[in-house]
Design a protein that fits this description.
globular; Aspartate Aminotransferase, domain 2; eight-stranded mixed beta sheet; 39% helix; 442 residues; 14 strands; four-stranded antiparallel beta sheet; Aspartate Aminotransferase, domain 1; 14% strand
């Protein structure tokens, strides 16, 4: 063996190739908030940040009891205790898509579930199809492994439905899986039964399995319905990723799962065995949470979910109504989840070259922070979160209106009418936010 003559310790290819678009963009941004205005962050997809949304008491008590029992302090099987996996199987099973404990793998959050699904289906050199705009973690997880991500477009003017022709055109002999995110982050879209069936037909024609990211399952607003993708097919194999994170308002508890839907045994035995082997890399999810899981899933009252959705839905309507009055902004009304995409007519804001500069300056001048669309591979948009207390949300929208008024350039290039129109728009915002706004903590 040739001996080394000096230190030479480098990062692995896996580490070098791992790239998180959101973190890379945010960490490179020049964020200096206006010192005269408390910061309002509409950027973080964590419903617990502002303290106005709390987990169900039943979940808290279940975890306390799990700890006190002292039965869940050791290692569990890498895929989870059978009792806990059975609880998830019962929770997710509906007519047309019933599963058993053997079909469930518990994970450390939904992100871990997505990681395992991508890793088990795709090899380096293959590709997975992901939505655009879409959650950037898909790309982060895949490209570190040498797996290519190819985008299929969503249509903003059609409620962010999938461009089916574009989806089909992206499939090739190296496509290992299609990722379908419903309800959507960042779009807040909820697909109809018919649209989901159309997506499944594309997958079936080309014999491509689907990874269904359904972490926002049933988090839909009145007038919309959530349809588990696996309940609509007995042909396409589906690995569904879910968890407690969003619906139960406990992202930091790190409890997610994979549910294998494969009624025709299309997936080889190697896939199930592969998921088990991959789960052994982290030796399973939190045993304390596993001990509390059945109680959380069965004892949380329906009213808890209804109240949470009502708050977020009202915020969606507030933000949409206020921002619709702002020239240069084009909000897209969401149907569920916790987010709204807002189009920015950058040609009306010549002071900025792109959405990143737009966001940076809005922080500097108004202390309002949204994520730029490029975080989701969709420029000329920003994403806002809807879990903020309504008073802060109204204040943020008013500041966004002031910002746009200051930088908007109309057809007459700052002509008299354009200024008047902008003043009217901000006046409408003021009318709707005339209520007293208390001091807002960072």
């Amino acid at each position: 063996m040739k001996s080394r003559r000096s230190w030479s310790v480098t990062a692995s290819n896996y580490a070098r190739n791992t790239f998180n678009p959101i973190r890379a963009i945010i960490e490179s941004m020049k964020l200096t908030p206006n010192p005269e205005k408390p910061m309002i962050a509409l950027s973080i997809g964590d419903p617990t940040v502002f303290g106005n949304l709390s987990p169900p008491c039943e979940a808290i008590e279940a975890v306390v009891e799990s700890v006190r029992s002292t039965q869940f302090n050791g290692y569990a099987p890498s895929t989870g205790y059978e009792e806990s996996r059975s609880a998830v199987a019962t929770y997710v099973s509906i007519p047309g898509a019933t599963v058993e404990a053997k079909d469930v793998i518990l994970c450390s959050g939904c992100s871990c579930a997505l990681d395992l699904c991508i890793s088990v289906l795709a090899n380096p050199g293959q590709n997975i199809l992901v939505p655009r705009p879409g959650f950037p973690l898909y790309r982060t997880l895949a490209e570190g492994l040498g797996i290519q991500t190819k985008f299929y477009d969503l249509k903003a003017d059609q409620g962010w439905e999938v461009d089916l022709e574009h989806l089909e055109s992206q499939i090739d002999e190296n496509t290992a899986a299609i990722v379908v995110n419903n309800p959507s982050n960042p779009c807040g879209s909820v697909f109809s039964r018919r649209h989901l069936q159309d997506i499944l037909q594309v997958a079936a024609r080309h014999f491509v399995p689907i990874i269904a990211d359904e972490i926002y399952d049933y988090f839909v607003f009145p007038g919309h319905d959530f349809h588990p993708l696996a309940s609509l097919t007995d042909e396409v194999p589906i690995l569904t990723c879910g968890g407690l994170t969003k619906r139960y308002l406990i992202p930091g508890w790190r409890m997610g799962w994979i549910v294998i839907h494969d009624r025709n045994d299309v997936l080889s035995l190697e896939v199930r065995q592969g998921l088990q082997k991959l789960s052994q890399r982290i030796i399973g999810s939190s045993t304390i949470l596993q001990g509390a899981l059945r109680t959380i899933l069965t004892q949380t009252p329906t009213s808890f979910f209804e109240d949470t959705i009502a708050i977020v839905h009202e915020n969606a309507q507030i933000a949409y109504n206020l921002l619709s009055n702002v020239q240069g902004l084009r909000p897209v009304l969401p149907a569920g989840a916790m987010y709204m995409m807002v189009g920015v007519e950058l040609d009306r804001f010549p002071a900025f070259e792109n959405d990143l500069q737009f966001v940076e300056r809005m922080v500097t001048e108004e202390s309002v922070f949204c994520l730029p669309g490029r975080c989701f591979d969709y420029p000329n948009y920003v994403r806002i979160v809807l879990t903020v207390p309504d008073v802060q949300l109204r204040e943020a929208c008013m500041r966004m209106a002031h910002f746009c008024e200051a930088h908007y350039v109309g057809d007459d290039h700052k002509g008299h009418h354009a200024v008047d129109d902008r003043s009217l728009a901000v006046g409408r915002i003021h009318d709707k936010t005339r209520m007293a706004v208390p001091a807002i903590e960072p």
